[in-house]
Structure formats: structure tokens, C-alpha cells
Amino acid sequence: MDQDIPVAERLQPITQGKVEPRRGGWAIALVLVGLMGVGAVWFLNRATESPTATETEPTVTPTENLLGHLPYEEAPLSELEPVSADGQIKLRRAAAERFRAMVAAAQQEGVVLVPLSGFRSKQDQDYLFFEVKEQRAQRASERALVSAPPGYSEHHTGYAIDIGDGSRPDTHLKETFEDTPAFRWLEKNAARFSFELSFPRHNPQGVSYEPWHWRFVGDRHSLQTFYRARQLTPRNEP
Predict the structure, then answer these.
(1) What are the pLDDT digits (tens) for 88-111?
(2) What is the DSSP letter of 165?
(3) Residue among 203, 184, 196 at smallest CA distance from 223
(4) 113: three-class secondary structure by DSSP
(5) What's the rounded Cα separation, in Å, for the pair 226 and 45?
(6) How far is CA 14 from the centre of its chain?
């Protein structure tokens, strides 16, 4: 009988009739696809809008301190410049330049800013801390209120300087310096030259108030030196 059927028709696939899709299966598939879409949107929103705790609240490791003082490296001698007439008191180049400009500006207003102490080596600080402590029969914790242990002084950085009033030498390195024209001028103008008071009253390091001690924070390195991870561990006992 097949011989009576044209060749073209014999070669076509045989179908059993049109099969209608199951409506229930398509509905379930659409629901699943919808749920997957909603889940993907929720996940993306969480990823972009709600960072992990580590991203929003980075862990800060408390900085090592000794008797309330932070560790500092010595400035390279090649980077120091004199800021005193005799050349003995020095600061890092950027700090020295701004300090000299500050002295000149104060002088124009009749105020004499006198540099008392700038860069100190660890050897210098060793004497100021240990030998003076023994001479005054002080405990380590008492000495640390007014002088940093060697390796922990801002003066090592070449950015810190003790300032006096040329018209009131009796107030040098004393709290009474705050009553001088020099201190009042510094309070008002020091920030214009990127200097700030290191140890104001009630400072978090527990160091005694030092109205004469100022530090330079006018470039990236000086700012990082004094502000990187400044959280303190509990103050050590002697």
C-alpha cells in the first residue's frame, strides 16, 4: 500500500495528534520563576545597601602606648632645618618653614615667639626621662606626666616644638605661659600655620597640660604621624 503514497508524503514524520500543554505545570513554573526573581532582587539589595559588619565597622587595633605616650620614630637628620638663631633647635623642613613664617607674622603684631626645644633624639630623651626622674625621686608614672619615655616623644618626629614668649621668659615651660601674649596669639593664629596644641587640658593620653608644646600637622606625613590609630590601651602602671 505504501507504494501508492507519494514519496514526499511518505518521508514526513508521523504525528499522533497535537498535544496540549498542561496548564497546571506552566502555572507552577511561572510562580517559581517569579520567586527566583524576587530572591535575586532581595539579595542584590542586601549586597549593595547593607554591607557586612566588617565593611561598615572596621576593627581598630589600639595603638601601643607606654605610660600614656605613643611610639614615634626619629626624623632623619638630613630632613632637619634650624629654627633658632644659634642653629641648635631644629624641625623637619616643612615644619621649620611654617614655624619661621608664624614667628614673622607674630612679630608684625608685636608678639615674640621663642623656640625652646625642637627635635630630640632618643638619647636626649633618655636623659630627660630617666636621669631627671632619679634626680627628682619621681616614679615612672609621675615622670611620664611631664616627659615621655625615650622612643615615645613627639619631639623625635621633628614636628613638635616648645614655644616661649620673648617678653616673659619667667613663663617658659610653665603653665603660666597661657597668660602671655604669645599663647593668646597662638590660640588665635597657630592653625593658620598648621600648628596645634599637643596636650590641652584633659587630653586622652593623660599627659599634663602643656600650653607651650605645639606640633605641626601641615602635610600628609605629619598628619599620619599623629593621627593614625590613636586609640589608647589602658595606661600602664610603673
Answers:
(1) 999 999 999 999 999 999 999 999
(2) E
(3) 196
(4) strand
(5) 39
(6) 81
pLDDT in tens, 159-183: 999 999 999 999 999 999 999 999 9
Residue 120 near residue 72 (C-beta atoms within 8 A): no
Reported as a single tens digit per residue, the pLDDT across 202-220 is: 988 888 999 999 999 999 9
Is residue 192 within 8 A of residue 69, CB to CB? The reply is no
Cα separation, 64 vs 178, in Å, equals 31
Beta strand ranges found along 65-112 (DSSP E)? 80-82, 90-92
Write phi, then psi, for 217 (nearest 5 degrees): -135, 45
Give CA–CA dist 175/172, Å, rounded. Answer: 8
- How would residue 30 be classed by pLDDT, with cut points 50, 70 and 90? low
User: E strands of 111-235, at which residues?
Assistant: 113-117, 160-165, 195-197, 213-216
132 versus 108: the higher-pLDDT residue is 108
Contacts (Cβ under 8 Å, ≥6 apart) of 156: 72, 73, 74, 75, 119, 120, 121, 122, 125
Is pLDDT larger for residue 32 or for residue 122? 122
Residue the block writes with cell 587630653: 203
Secondary structure E strands in 118-170: 160-165
Nearest of 156, 168, 163, 186 to residue 116 by alpha carbon: 163
Is the pTM of the predicted complex or chain greater than 0.90? no
Handedness of CA 194, 177, 158, 203 (dihedral sign): negative
Residue 29 pLDDT grade (very low, low, confident, very high; cuts 50, 70, 90): low
